[in-house]
Amino acid sequence: MELPFAEEYRIKMVEPIRKTNREQRVQWIKDAKYNLFNLRSEHVYIDLLTDSGTGAMSDRQWSEMMLGDESYAGASSYYKMKDAITEITGFPYFLPTHQGRAAENVLFSTMVKAGDFIPGNAHFDTTKGHIEFRHATPVDCTIKEAFDTTLIHPFKGNVDIDKLDEVLRNHPVEKIPCIIVTITCNTAGGQPVSMKNMKEVKQLADNYQIPVVFDSARFAENAYFIKTREEGYKDKSIREIVLEMFSYADIMTMSSKKDAIVNMGGFIAMRDENLYNQATVYNILFEGFITYGGMSGRDMNALAQGLREATEFDFLENRVGQVAYLGKKCKEYGVPVLEPFGGHAIFVDALKFYPQIPKEEFPAQTLAIELYIEAGVRGVEIGAILADRDPGTRENRYSDLELLRLAIPRRTYTDNHIEYVAAALKNVFDRRNEIKRGVEILKEAPVLRHFTVELAKL
Ligand code: F0G
């Protein structure tokens, strides 16, 4: 008999979580103004809001925490982090930051000015926020296949090279400070970018001498997909693939809360010493001295260890496999999910789930609320609320992707939890016709509104 797949870890410490009842949840979500970010975490049974900063650290990472060097300058932890980054990504220069958006803030302060255009595959919301905050414009050049949730394509995160070429041809080069490729592409549903595509982007960018930035939060998951899906990479190790991937970038920003499996942390890495020197000024201003930039020594140590663990094939097979398990269960129950399944999350297609609810009433948010009420499971809307309003017209931006994301934290939940989530979703799906209306916005912030938006049920 073939041995079944099993985790490559065992559990040494547990954290109790509590079930609640429907009546309580109806009240709590109402008190939260129907915004799941406003819920207290103890009112959530299974928290799939994000895979960011929510992973379980290993015993090796916890022991690294004890070895943290908290010196203000020149801490050994800084050098540990530097060695890990250079070994795994190949970048010689780096700056620590407290998280991914801080890396964006420092880098864009150095590179982006008003009136610029920044093409790439669907930018993440903080990336878009930092670009638009500087009165520059992100230009989405994701391949069109990404917008069809049922179409099977191995690399739906790919950049459309023709579209990118058109953007580059139609704007003065000095107005395009960089191209950003997000690996994996969160906004497109945790979809990977192929090695071939990265290489093509880099070649095109080189023709115009425009630097390529990889937004690398889930770079290891991207490498796993290259190994398992792209011709020529089956026999390469994850580390070899990662090194080749980053050879097609000039700069990377990193939210270490994902593929470095730490609760807080980030960094920028680059090849160019000049750029490093310029970014250093902003890093000191916004984050801290260059050898800690917003991080404790202990966190830098855990991050260095986490980078090594997350680039192991066994870890990734288990991690991406658990996400796919949720996807398979959902499909089995007829729940419309985005395919192929993402690396870090399953995305439920709310337009197919609730075709009776118009886009103006936010079907994905409605579904997130229903799932919470059903079972205390917290997901997050990746749809029109998140997409925010156009900075010029202030109109809502509706897209063909109106999704509920169920992001799976790394090494945190068991397959029993996953089965519970799938069953909860099935129950919500089975009574989908009872839901006639969605929600409306009562109050919203000028940017990144989804975090604090207040809603009412219609
Ligand atoms: N880039 C990508 C692709 C991300 O997914 C995120 C965060 C960031 C940048 C910003 O990093 O949170 O450390 O400041 N994504 C989280 C999520 C919040 O839930 O997908 P951060």
Protein architecture, described:
With 458 residues, the protein is of the alpha/beta class. The protein has 16 helices and 14 strands. The strands form 5 sheets. Strands 2-8-7-6-5 form a 5-stranded mixed sheet, with helices on both faces. It has a 3-stranded antiparallel sheet with strand order 9-12-11. The longest helix has 20 residues. The structure holds ligand F0G.
List the helices and strands and how they pair.
Layout (H helix, E strand, L loop, with lengths): L21 H10 L14 E2 L11 H8 L9 H14 L3 E5 L2 H12 L5 E4 L4 H9 L3 E4 L20 H10 L8 E4 L12 H14 L3 E4 L3 H11 L8 H10 L3 E5 L10 E5 L2 H14 L10 H14 L2 H20 L12 E5 H4 L9 H13 L1 E2 L1 E3 L1 H4 L15 E5 L7 H16 L8 E5 L10 E4 L1
Parallel strand pairs: 1-10, 3-4, 5-6, 6-7
Antiparallel strand pairs: 2-8, 7-8, 9-12, 11-12, 13-14
Helix pairs in contact: 1-14, 2-11, 3-11, 4-5, 4-10, 6-7, 8-9, 12-16, 14-16
Bound molecules: ligand F0G.
Q: Concise description?
A:
The chain has 458 residues and is an alpha/beta fold. It contains 16 helices and 14 strands.
Which descriptors would you attach to this protein?
14 strands, Aspartate Aminotransferase, domain 1, 458 residues, five-stranded mixed beta sheet, binds ligand F0G, 2 domains, 16 helices, Aspartate Aminotransferase, domain 2, single chain, alpha/beta, three-stranded antiparallel beta sheet
